[in-house]
Amino acid sequence: MTTTPSYTATFRVNQSPEAAFAAIINPRAWWTGAFEGDTTALGDVFTYRYQDIHYSRQEVTELVPGRRVAWQVLDADLSFPKDRTEWTGTTITFDIVRTGGQTEVTFTHVGLKPEVECYDICTDAWTSLIQGSLRQLIETGKADLPELAEPVT
Q1: pTM for the complete prediction?
Q2: What domains can you pick out in the chain, each with its CATH number?
Q3: Model confidence over 69-81: pLDDT tens digits?
Q4: Which of 54, 58, 106, 143 could share a disulfide with 133, CB 3.0–4.6 Å?
């Protein structure tokens, strides 16, 4: 039996792995929405809310400077899929590697697969955030935060 891969996005930047790591652990600078709590130490728990569309509570479960960040979604409430808790139990990871003179960042939302109802809407949002504002933050030190589209229900 084959399993469907989770959503992944990869990009390269002309910055150090340390610069990429510092940007990733500061999601307030690249992820549109409201945050409560810290995101910089192992075991930190934070909440994220985007209007009345998305709420999630996440725990920092891996933090390897310059190499890896992982957040476990402890609780989620998405307003648009039938199963509002689709993100609960998923894991958001960032793997950082030096490749030649560049740094490669691979983002994976483990559990966000095509058979999940929110897949199309969530991957569009992730693509905007990861390939757009996070990449820009790493490259320039400043991100233009995107205004995320309202899901069509």
Answers
A1: 0.90
A2: 17-140 (3.30.530.20)
A3: 999 999 998 888 7
A4: 143
